[in-house]
Specification:
Blueprint lengths: L2 H61 L27 H6 L39 E11 L7 E6 L6 E5 L7 H4 L3 E5 L5 E3 L2 E3 L2 E2 L1 E4 L2 E4 L13 E2 L16 H5 L3 E3 L5 E3 L2 E5 L3 E2 L12
Length: 291
């Protein structure tokens, strides 16, 4: 194919494309004109339908005693501070707006409801911070093993009268042999906030007599059962569900917990007891703190 033929074909193709573009433009213009005409016709129908619906609504409202209020037309706008005038009401509309006596017009105005004054709640009296706020119970050590992540901690399973045993992490490894803990009864503080110790949540604390000479687990009286309550004469037992660490309840009570000359566990000068069964005692440590 010669170069001249190529040029001729290129010109022919260009002319054909220009003609197609021109035809497409004309077709788009005609389509837009038809679409605009269709939209105008549909809009006129909608305007007419709205006007008829409005007329019916006004008629129904006036028949039911709802007074019609004149509203400014769209043309009545305020310019330069001049107030627009309301549109004139036709005779037909005036007839429609005549009040019609209905049951609704005869209704008595509702009496204004009187607002109830909220009664101010009296502040709840704060309970005294004493041993009555501690949930001390008898527990039974069902199982004891070494904590997998801490050399100085035992991992105990202790029954205390609940549906399942509590998990307790206790730092007694260097003070009490494992065999002396297995299957024995202890005094358990049950309402401390649970705390995670080396990855395991501890749910209570075993109460012990403690000093520089050593640490001894407190001994409940014979005949106790898991869940038996520990009480102190002269103090009402009213423990918190869980003691709030911010209020430092245990920290306030703890300095007055101790053993006396007779090895009896005491709060101040009062002995800790399990009602009907006996007193809480230490094994050998006299006059030392309990914690």
């Amino acid at each position: 194919m010669s170069l001249q033929n190529v040029k001729t074909n290129a010109v022919l193709i260009k002319n054909t494309m220009d003609e197609l573009k021109s035809d497409l433009k004309v077709m788009n213009e005609k389509y837009n004109m038809l679409l605009a005409q269709q939209l105008r016709e549909e809009n006129a129908k909608l305007v007419q339908a709205v006007a008829e619906a409005k007329k019916k609504l006004i008629l129904l409202e006036t028949q039911n005693g709802i007074k019609q209020i004149n509203v400014p037309s769209r043309k009545m706008c305020t310019h330069s501070g001049v107030q627009a005038q309301p549109e004139k009401v036709t005779e037909e509309k005036q007839d429609l707006e005549k009040p019609v006596e209905t049951k609704q017009n005869n209704k008595k105005p509702k009496e204004a409801k009187t607002k109830k004054v909220k009664e101010t709640k009296e502040p709840i009296a704060e309970l005294p911070v004493d041993i009555g706020r501690l949930d001390l119970r008898i527990g039974h050590i069902d199982h004891v093993e070494r904590h997998p992540e801490a050399d100085t901690l035992y991992l105990l399973k202790i029954s205390c009268g609940e549906d399942k045993p509590r998990t307790v992490c206790s730092g007694l490894v260097n003070h009490v042999p494992m065999e002396k803990l297995q299957d024995r009864y202890v005094v358990l503080l049950c309402n401390l906030k649970p705390v995670k110790m080396r990855g395991i949540v501890s749910e209570a604390m075993v109460m012990c007599a403690s000093c520089d000479k050593g640490v001894e687990v407190l001994m409940p009286p014979p005949g106790c059962s898991p869940g038996d309550l520990v009480e102190c004469e002269g103090y009402n037992r009213n423990p918190d569900a869980v003691m709030n660490p911010k209020k430092k309840i245990f920290e306030t009570v703890a300095p007055d917990l101790h053993t006396n000359d007779s090895l009896l566990a005491c709060y101040k000068d009062k002995i800790l007891t399990v009602p009907g069964k006996g007193n809480i005692v230490a094994e050998t440590l006299k006059n030392v703190p309990i914690k």
